[in-house]
Amino acid sequence: MTRISRTPQWLYGWLLLLPSAVLLIAFTHYPIVRTLYNSFFTTPRGRIPARFIGLENYQALLHDEIFLRVLVNNFLFALGTIPASVGLALLMAVWVNGTLPGRALARTSFFTPTVLPMVAVANIWLFFYTPQVGILEKMLAPFGIHGVNWLGDPSTVLWCLAVMAVWKEAGFFMIFYLAALQGVPPDLTEAARIEGAGRWYCFRRITWPLLMPTTIFVLLNATINCFKLVDHLFIMTKGGPDNASSLLLYYIYETAFAYWDTAYASTLTVVLLGLLALTALVQFLYLERRAHYR
Amino acid sequence: MSEPSASECRGVGISLRSVTKIFGAFTAVNDVSLDIAPGEFLVILGPSGCGKSTLLRLVAGLESVTSGSMLMGGADITALPPADRRLSMVFQSYALFPHLSVRENIVFGLRLRKRGAQEVAERLEIASRLLGLGELLDRKPSELSGGQQQRVALGRAIVSKKPVCLMDEPLSNLDAKLRNSMRREIHALQRTLGITMIYVTHDQVEAMTMADRVALLDGGRLVQHATPAELYSRPQTVFAARFIGTPPMNLVPLHEAEGGAALEPGGAVVLPGVPGKGVLLGVRPEDIVLAPGGLPARVLDTEFLGADLLARCALAGGEVLVRLPGKREVAGGDGVRLVLPPQALHFFDAASGRRRDDILCGA
Question: Do A195 and B62 touch (CB under 8 A)?
Answer without folding.
Answer: no
